Amino acid sequence: MRKVFLPRDMAELWSAMADEPAARVYAGGTDLLVAMRAGTVVAPALICLERLAELQGVREEGEEIWLGAATTHAALLSNPLVGRHLPLLVQALRTLGSPPIRNMGTIGGNICTASPAGDTLPPLYVLAAEVELQSPGGRRRLPLRDFIAGPGQTRLETGEILTGVRVRKPVDANCHRFEKIGQRQALACCIVSMAALLTVTPAGVVASIRLAWGSVGPTVMEAPAAEAALTGSFMTRENLHRAAVFVRQAVAPIDDIRASAAYRREVAGNLLLRLLPG
Ligand SMILES: Cc1cc2nc3c(=O)[nH]c(=O)nc-3n(C[C@H](O)[C@H](O)[C@H](O)COP(=O)(O)OP(=O)(O)OC[C@H]3O[C@@H](n4cnc5c(N)ncnc54)[C@H](O)[C@@H]3O)c2cc1C
Fold it and tell me: Cα-Cα-Cα-Cα dihedral of 202, 204, 207, 209, to 10°?
């Protein structure tokens, strides 16, 4: 029979991790337990993080918002700080899974699964999120884009857990958009997604823009050339079409059962057109 630990504080967590070095930690289990049932992950013991108060909740800390790693998607969606400051993340969370999955799945689990299709990742990239990691030896912070090392791979070290994710409030942005193309309206793994954070002047000129795409490469993909092309330009169909060419050059999709690489590349560029006002 497999041992399952339910630590109630960090001291109990470190002690369980020391006693069972091969144990896997989990929060909602919506990725890990599914993978174990499918036989793609084998874990001799499990350590559940959901009772750790240190990994729960949302805090406003000056110019930043801190999101606890074991906070569920549903809890984030109903949190007023997230609603007020992070509308881009809210849009992505609304498309993630189904109500039962949002009630169990956590933001830390979505990050640590490191799927190129993880719905919270493109928004967190454009928000320049940083992850907070902790082990008995101390804490460290890392930009999310450095933490994600490849599909299913992170720079989490042995004996370390993700405690939270930190983003600066995007105070200047006045356009927050998450777009997701899937095979169905609900419960669909994304075929292509795009997160966009813009500041557009009253005259319609793009003063700043951050863009990121999901499911079109081994990790979240960015297109600095498209951002440069749009910065200082009017938000017109023509300019967005021009920038879409750079997007299609930057992404690196693959064929899979859900869509071809060519379709994903085309759609990744086309999603820019959804930024047109009205
Ligand atoms: C039916 C279904 C539909 C889904 N739909 C979507 C969808 O639309 N979009 C989407 O993005 N995802 C989707 N998912 C995937 C999943 O629900 C999410 O990725 C979820 O956020 C995972 O969170 P979790 O807490 O359940 O992760 P867990 O399964 O608990 O953990 C996932 C991984 O992260 C590690 N981990 C978790 N927390 C920590 C931590 N604090 N520190 C270190 N390591 C940690 C675990 O060891 C494991 O490797 C779906 C899953 C299912 C089963």
Answer: 120
How far away, in angstroms, is 106 Cα from ligand 1 center?
Answer: 6
Q: 231 and 152, same structural domain?
A: no
- Name the residue range of residue 267's domain: 175-275
Q: Which of 55, 101, 120 to mutate to test the pocket of ligand 1 (most atoms within 8 A of CB)?
A: 101
**Last residue of one domain, picked from the residues 118, 145, 168:** 168
What are 10-24's pLDDT values in tens digits? 999 999 999 999 999
Closest ligand 1 atom to 31 CA: 29
Which residue, by CA, sits nearest to atom 46 of ligand 1?
A: 26
Q: Specify the CATH number for the domain of residue 179.
A: 3.30.390.50
The two beta strands, 64-68 and 58-61, are antiparallel
pLDDT digits (tens, 9 = 90+) for 230-248: 999 999 999 999 999 999 9
Of 168, 187, 204, the position where a domain reaches its end is 168
For the chain, what is the domain count? 2
- Cα separation, 96 vs 105, whole angstroms: 9
CA dist 274 and 227 (Å) reads 15
How far is the centre of ligand 1, averaged over its atoms, from the C-alpha of 107 (Å)? 8
